[in-house]
Design a protein that fits this description.
Length: 323
């Protein structure tokens, strides 16, 4: 079958198409005929905790039809429409832990389904599991036009929270407001804390999702409300270190945490999926949440999809149609 691999060459991530054998599911797994997958920036980052080695089959989520099931799998049957996180979405077939698979709501196309797993499960971990976002609270997202940023906005709105987003593009902010963003702050600099305080009546954000990195980390701390929570999910700025105001951390009872799947065990991943299916998937199924897709590429145009995500022009998800 056709597949696409991510390799490290001269300190950069490059793509390489390869023919590989059809994967066979082990016990507890399902083999999926991939109809669509999505491009996720994290797996293109060379080094650190994200990339995962000198080469790997690309794609971290997929949507498609169950082809075969492994021993012990009773939750899905061949022909079922599923979506989920999976190593190897850049291929005609992939294998998925059955506990990671979710039923595709009838209202979603394959492309929309492929935009769900990584972005929305990550948002769910930050907003529900770790961030404890509540109805009526304010959520701030830096770099809000990313796939995870948009998923965070949409999930927060379905929860009943209010949202603030930063972006260096007025056009992107206009698109985000149409998707549910309450307050947009046009900036690429660490200068937004005062505007966040002004928008929230002087309180600050109860939860912040930092999609940018270390260059805005101290400003995020300044933008937090009392007992605020700060999630770090990306560092597209390449800045991996930052100072922490321990006095503010101590006095205001802040909680700082990171969200990454690099060291997440299968059991925890399964718990997250169960929680998402219970708490958020109904909002997708009834139309309250519709994934925002920026552009759809064909499988042969994966290099163009990579160029697109690295150009920072997108708002929402870049999706690749496979089957």
């Amino acid at each position: 079958m056709k597949s696409c691999w991510i390799k490290t060459e001269a300190g950069k991530a490059v793509l390489e198409f390869r023919d590989v054998p059809l994967p066979q599911p082990k016990a507890g797994e399902i083999a999926v005929r991939v109809h669509a997958t999505s491009m996720n920036r994290g797996e293109l980052i060379v080094g650190g905790v994200v990339h995962g080695g000198a080469e790997k089959i690309g794609g971290t989520d997929a949507a498609g039809e169950v082809h075969t099931v492994g021993e012990g799998v009773t939750s899905f049957r061949p022909g079922d429409r599923v979506m989920g996180r999976a190593r190897g979405g850049f291929a005609e077939y992939t294998v998925m832990d059955a506990r990671q698979a979710m039923p595709v709501p009838p209202c979603l196309s394959w492309e929309q389904a492929a935009a769900i797993p990584v972005a929305f499960l990550t948002a769910y971990e930050m907003l529900y599991e770790c961030g404890r976002l509540k109805r009526g609270e304010w959520l701030l997202i830096t770099g809000a036009s990313s796939g995870v940023g948009v998923a965070s906005i949409q999930t927060a709105k379905a929860l009943g929270a209010s949202t603030i987003g930063t972006s260096g593009s007025a056009q992107k902010l206009a698109t985000l407001k149409a998707a549910g963003l309450d307050v947009g702050i046009e900036t690429r600099a660490p200068d937004f804390a005062d505007k966040v305080k002004a928008a929230t009546g002087g309180k600050g954000a109860g939860l912040i999702v930092n999609c940018v990195g270390g260059s805005v980390f101290p400003e995020c701390v300044r933008a937090l409300a009392y007992e605020g929570r700060l999630a770090t999910v990306g560092y597209v700025d390449g800045v991996l270190k930052s100072e922490i105001d321990l006095g503010a951390l101590h006095a205001n009872r802040y909680v700082l945490f990171g969200v990454s799947n690099a060291k997440l065990g299968p059991a925890h991943r399964a718990e997250t999926v169960c929680g998402f299916v219970r708490d958020v998937l109904p909002a997708v199924a009834d139309g309250r949440i519709t994934p925002l897709i920026f552009k759809v590429f064909s499988f042969d145009d994966l290099p163009a999809a990579k160029d697109c995500i690295e150009s920072n022009t997108q708002v929402g998800k870049i999706v690749v149609r496979v089957a």
